[in-house]
Amino acid sequence: MTHKPRVAYFYDPDVGNYYYGPGHPMKPHRLSLTHSLVLSYDLFQHMEIYRPLKATAFDMCTFHSEDYINFLQRVTPQNIGGFTSSRFNVGEDCPVFPGMFDFCSIYSGASLDGAVKLNNNQADIVINWSGGFHHAKKFEASGFCYVNDIVLAILELLKHHARVLYIDIDIHHGDGVQEAFYLTDRVMTVSFHRYGNYFFPGTGDLFEVGLERGKFYSVNVPLKEGIDDESFLSIFKPVVEKVVSFYQPSCVVLQCGADSLAGDRLGCFNLSIRGHGDCVKFVKKLHLPLLVLGGGGYTIRNVARCWAYETALILGKDIDHLIPTNEYYDFYAPDYSLLPDLVSNSKTDNHNTRQYLDLIQQSVTEHLRMLPGAPAVQMQEIPPDFSRLELPPEDSTDMDIRYNSYERDKIVSYNAEFYDLGNKFSDHS
Ligand code: V1D
Ligand code: CA
């Protein structure tokens, strides 16, 4: 990879309009804030922006059960009474809201399209801030997640890559991704998370290491509340470094849940935006094909700040610490700063002692030493790309119009009216 990576950014302008319901902490609107900030910093000039195709029910069934996806596709707030919904774990955490299936199709389509872009070597780094739904299980919804776009994307990457590394810096354990690949050595999952006191989802103990062929290919870093930048990076860097050196992955998926920031509405860590970004910077420096995803994050002004800052970081662009005027400027009052001091106002002490962090690191290292070295895979004929055929527009009379994935990749989404780009975008037209 050259010094300046080729970055592809996937965004659907509809994704921010979905609504989980009153009182629910997950707010897709944060994605509109993030995108607006990315545009106001002129970052679109340095990357290709794509509007992803929606994932179909068929695409989702590469991981999920048909029964479950059928349910997601058919259930609505009006007809839910006619289903035995408890079977699929919808309810308070995972409500059935208007357009729920479309929302899942959008964020999953973006992660899948991103994986194909990396597989075809058409980008070095792909960003999909709408993805990262790490709790969704094969048969059910969990923790605000319905369809596990991460598992779908990793399955796509495995068509071209012998070993995929998954790293998760959301404050919650990446249980859905870990569970999906618990028995295989083709994917190594590494999650950093709050663990203990029944913190959701309650999994991610240090001793969950994988089973059978997958034994020692699941890595868990259980942390206590209040962890700050210095402590977090002091464990993140050596763990990732060791994992990469033992496992030798050929690509990386990074889940960047922003609920690990100080001041998050649900989280209890004390990371600054700079500290969170340092994790992204560290992973970028591995110079491996990289899929960057969103995840949790419930103080939405800080989620937008964090993901816009990390977009700039990925592009290698220094941006002004004062937020430019944009549609959601008022959210950043009173300081209008990109990197406000989130930590000083926090009342949570760091409960992670040096001794505790050293112990975890030592244990993870011991587990890694059990690995036989990077597992080889007999690569067979490469399966075809995930290629969802795009149907012609509803008003089209030409039923022969179909795009395959290669043709689709040429459809760079830019709507000058929406993005207000003037002539700046002419390079990509
Ligand atoms: F506070 C709430 C208000 C309304 C609805 C739900 C919540 C809420 C807060 N925290 N729900 C939770 C967590 N659920 C529970 C279970 C409820 N049971 C009795 C236990 O504690 C779920 C937290 C999900 C976190 C999701 C995520 O940030 O990891 C994420 N990552 O990618 C997308 C989301
Ligand atoms: Ca995590």
Automatic annotation (TrEMBL):
Q: What class of enzyme is it?
A: hydrolase
Q: Which catalytic residues are annotated?
A: H135
Domain of life of the native organism: Eukaryota
Mind telling me which residue stretches traverse the membrane in this protein? none
Documented EC number(s): 3.5.1.98
Question: Which reaction equations make up its catalytic activity?
Answer: N(6)-acetyl-L-lysyl-[histone] + H2O = L-lysyl-[histone] + acetate
InterPro entries tied to this protein: HDAC_I/II, HDACs, His_deacetylse_dom, His_deacetylse_dom_sf, Ureohydrolase_dom_sf
What range(s) does the Histone deacetylase domain occupy?
24-312
- GO CC: one term? nucleus
Q: Quick one: where is this thing mainly located?
A: nucleus
Q: Which Gene3D superfamilies match?
A: Histone deacetylase domain (3.40.800.20)
Any one GO BP annotation for this protein: epigenetic regulation of gene expression
- Say if the entry is tagged with keyword Transcription: yes
Molecular function via GO: histone deacetylase activity, hydrolytic mechanism; metal ion binding
Q: Which locations, inside or outside the cell, does it occupy?
A: Nucleus
Query: A Pfam family matched by this chain, by name?
Result: Hist_deacetyl
Positions with a binding annotation for substrate: D93, G143, Y298
Keyword terms = Chromatin regulator, Hydrolase, Metal-binding, Nucleus, Repressor, Transcription, Transcription regulation
Q: Where is a divalent metal cation bound in this sequence?
A: D170, H172, D259
Give the family this protein belongs to, as stated in its UniProt record. Belongs to the histone deacetylase family. HD Type 1 subfamily.
- The protein, known as: Histone deacetylase
Give the species this sequence originates from.
Answer: Oopsacas minuta
